[in-house]
Structure formats: C-alpha cells, structure tokens
Amino acid sequence: MQPLFRRFVLLCVIAALGLLSLYHIAGWDSKLQPSRPSSSLPGRIKHSVKWKDVPVRYPVTSTIALPSGTPSAIPRIQHEFGIETDGNKQKRLKRLGAVKQVFLRSWMAYREHAWLQDEVSPVSGGFKNQFGGRAATLVDALDTMAIMGLDKEFGQALAALKQIDFTTTETSTVNVFETTIRYLGGLLSTYDLTGGKHSILLNKATELGDMLYVAFDTPHRLPITRWDWENGALSGSQEAPVSVLSAELGSLSLEFTRLSQLTGDDKYYDAVARVSNQFEKHQNSTSIPGLWPVRINLLAESFTVDRTFSFGGMSDSLYEYFPKQHMLLGGLVPQYRKLYVGAIEAAKRVLFFRPLTPDNRDILVSGTVRKNAADHFKLQPEAQHLACFAGGMVGIGAKIFDRPEDLDVARRLVDGCIWAYESMPSGIMPESSSVIPCHDPEDCEWSRQKWYDGVMDQRPLHSYRDDVEKIVEENNLAPGFTDITDRRFLLRPEAIESVFIMYRITGNTTLLDNAWEMFQAIIASTSTDISNSAIADVTDLEPELIDECESFWMAETLKYFYLIFSEPDVVSLDEWVFNTEAHPLRRPQ
Ligand SMILES: *[C@@H]1O[C@H](CO)[C@@H](O)[C@H](O)[C@H]1NC(C)=O
Ligand SMILES: *[C@@H]1O[C@H](CO)[C@@H](O)[C@H](O)[C@H]1NC(C)=O
C-alpha cells in the first residue's frame, strides 16, 4: 500500500469506529442485535415508521373491492376418512410424537442460541439474519406451535412478539415476497388458527401490511419486489422494476387478500388484484400461451422478454396461488379458475414428462422449457426439489375445479418426487438433478444403454466407451439420473407438502409410509447436536452439515410431517388454505 493511501484507510477506520460508538451511545440500535454492523450505520432509519402517514404518490382512482355475496359451493377436497383401526392409530400416534419431538428440539435450539434472530446456525450454535432481523423463525413457527398444542412455547413466543418492530428492518432492501409469505403469512395464520383471540397478531400484521403496501406505490400500482424501503418512507420517487421474478410478483395475493378480509380495508386486496389483472391480460400472449415466463419486465409491462418457463424455483408459487386464491375468495372471482386452467393445460403439454426409471414407474417430473431463437421448445429435463409442490397443487386443482382426469397427473407427479427420494443413498432428493425424458410416454422401457446414452448426452466432450462408467461412479449417479446439478438438501418442504395433500385427497395409506420413510431419512442425515441442518450432498451416506436451518424447517417441513400423521380434520383442506410458507388461512364457509 502507498503510505498516503494507508493513512487514508486508517482515518476511515477511525471515523467508522467513531460513528459506530456514537450510534451505540445514541441508542439508535434496535432491540434486535444486527448481524452485520455495516447494515446499521447511522443515516439509516432506526425508529418506527408510521407507514400509514407516508403520502401516497400514485393514488388509485377507484379501489377494487373484495367480492361480496355468498361464497359459491366449492367441491370438497378431502377424502371421507372411515374409522381407523387400533393398530393404524398406534402407529400413526408414534410417528406423530416423533415429529413433535424433533420440532421441540429445533425450537429449543432456536430459543437458546438465536432468540429473536432470524435463524439458528444448527452446527456452530450461532445465528444468522437474512430476512431483516425480525425473528423470522419465531414468527414463521408460531402457527406450528399452535397446531401442535405447545402452549408454553407458544405463549413465550407470542409475548416476545411485542418487542419486534415490523415497521423498520435491518436490511436496506426488503424482499417483498419473502417478507409477505413468512412474516405476514405467519402472523395472519396464527391469528386465524387461534380464533382471533390475540389482537396483537392482527395489529402487527397490519403494521407490516401498511409497510409492504408502499412498495406498490408506483405509476401503474405494480410492486417493487426488491424494495428500497427507506426511499419509500422518505417519499423518494418509485417505479416498477425492469426485471421481476414471476413467483415474487404472483405470490402476494393470499396474504394481502386475507389482510383485507380481516381488517375490512380493501386497499390490500386492491393492490394484489391489479397484479392478477396483469397476469390475465398477458396469459395468452407469452411465448408459451397459458404460462408466464420466469422473468417479467414490469416497468414496460412486457411478459415476452424472457422465454424460460418452469414450475421450479422463481416461478413456482405464482401458479400455486391461483387455485388457492379461488378458494380464499369463496369462488367469487372467476378469473382465478381461468388463470389456473390455462396454465395447467399448457404445463401438461410442455412441462410434465415421464422419466426413464429402472422399474418403469409410471411417474411424472415437472421440467423447464426454453423457447429458442428459431421458436423451438427445448425441454430441460431437470427434477427440482422446489417443483415438488406441483403434485399437491394439481391434486387440489383437480378437486376444486372438477377436473378428475388431473388426479392421476397429480398422483404421478407426487410419485416422481417419491422416486427421487428413494433413489438417493441418503433417501433424500437433491435440490436439482437431471433425468431422461421418454419422448413417447407409452414407450419408456428401461435399459442401461438408454441411461448411459443419457449420461453421455449431458457431457458432449467426453468419449463414450472410456468414460461412462467412470462418470456414473464419480458422480454417484443413481440409475435413471444423468447429473446432479445441485447436491444439497436444504430441509425443504415441497415433497412432503404434496405427499400430505395427496393423502388428504385420497386416503391412500401407502403415502403415510412414504412420508415416514422421508422423515426418517431426513432425521438420519440432518441431525446436529442441537437441531437439524441443511446438508451438502444427498448422494453421500454421511453428508457434510452446512450449518443452515431456514425458518421453513419449523414453519413448513415439520408442520406437513406433523399434519400427515394427525387426524384428517386437523387443519382440514376444506376449511383452510395454506400459503406457500405452509401458513393456513381460514377459508370462507
Ligand atoms: C386464453 O385462450 C384460451 C383458449 O382460446 C381461452 O379459453 C382463455 O380464456 C384465454 N385466457 C385469457 C386469460 O384470456
Ligand atoms: C397409493 O399411493 C402410492 C404412492 O403415491 C401410489 O404409488 C399408489 O398407486 C397409490 N394407490 C392407489 C390405489 O391409488
């Protein structure tokens, strides 16, 4: 370093330290310890913001009101369960107890090592704040504790909620989607599940909703999905972004709708109804009519700049929210059926495919499709853990929209994920992998040769004879898999979510055993001294623990495992609708 430059750096460090101590003396820091000091430098808004008082830049000319009228009759989703045998009941209760124990252990770890932080680090015993430092795990896990009847733990968590200020946050950019599904969804669902008894839940939800509502304050009232909230609070200029992920745009509707229903203020519903209108307007003019691409240029309101389509990450819950919004609105808005049916018809044509499997299973995987410059579709035959939600969604859609032919599609999608779990040495599906699509689903007879050809197709630079067996061995590829593009398991819920939904729809008890196998495999590979951790490689029998436990472990994964082993009327799908973070909201009856 040049001496002058060195002195400059030293001065900067001293100045920074001075500012930092000033900031502590002035007591500007919030109750929650910031994880990254740099995110808490002076100049940031540290106090509560009265979001209701921030002047509206672009007022709506007329508010879209919640539909009124008597909810229409929506066909029943759940199977009519008969009387359970004693033996089945004993087995089920044993499994239920095991899930509850794992939840309690994870909760204790959070309470002891990461209280009021976003998440615990389950190997090192530290903590992490990646969702704004507003106790994400606590808020996300509240309704699970209510469902499990953990009254003491629930009471403690509820009391702590008073200390959390939802009108301000540690990060400069708010991820509107994550904040909505985790925090807003968690608060609203706990309010609903406890019968509206705890007004603090709705008050906090409204405070947060009023903050998020300002992200919609742009010329066409379309939201800024990664939002500079301080600029929002300080009345800076705002416009819709050039690139948004379709899932982040489309998965706000349930939470905002429920907030309007509970507060009687239509403005939140108005905000998301305008987004749905955009999806409707553009549904048939994208590169694959019926579907929307992963990325959308919201500023230009262009749905054609991107030509990639998938039910996997970045698009997933966009689709999931159409049938769910239909249910939450009591079937009174016909738009959501149209959006769903158009999408599912296209998905059955282009996204779902039958993979080659050693035992010729009649299953489906939901892949990714790109349209190239010559307007040809190219199917990328990937199996993403995130896309495993699709089986449950298609099952629910089959019931509520009376599409019985889709029930078998749902069953095959669920079985696709079960197959991916069963195929791995750890018994857990990887984050993403590649398989071999059978171009003619009727002609999908296994041969080792076809598998090897598929493996080599992924690697055009290798010469065949020498390499294929070595590649299979080095990559630990199970028969049928041609590549494992992301070997991690992040404690994700989507597979058990769909197994749970299919069980509630069909009453097929094989699914209980599938769920139990999954649960045991996950516990065997992810347990740490204090809790459970994401793992580096599901093809490893003793996978490395990567010291991460996102809030969805207790909010979603363990909740769905608990519910599948509960009595079928505990959070019935005919009375509740789950947001994409597994937070049940009450359906109109
Ligand atoms: C898209 O086109 C289909 C088939 O013509 C039609 O049934 C559907 O209503 C259209 N969807 C929208 C949102 O306009
Ligand atoms: C029961 O569920 C399993 C797992 O999804 C499936 O393979 C099987 O076909 C189902 N049985 C019936 C009768 O639907």
TrEMBL record:
InterPro entries: 6hp_glycosidase-like_sf, Glyco_hydro_47, Glycosyl_Hydrolase_47, Seven-hairpin_glycosidases. Gene3D superfamilies: 1.50.10.10. GO terms for molecular function: calcium ion binding; mannosyl-oligosaccharide 1,2-alpha-mannosidase activity. Its EC number is 3.2.1.-. GO terms for biological process: carbohydrate metabolic process; ERAD pathway. It comes from Mytilinidion resinicola. Pfam families: Glyco_hydro_47 (PF01532). This is alpha-1,2-Mannosidase. The lineage of its organism: Eukaryota, Fungi, Dikarya, Ascomycota, Pezizomycotina. It comes from the Eukaryota. Its cofactor is Ca(2+). The active site is at 178 (proton donor), 316, 431 (proton donor), 494.
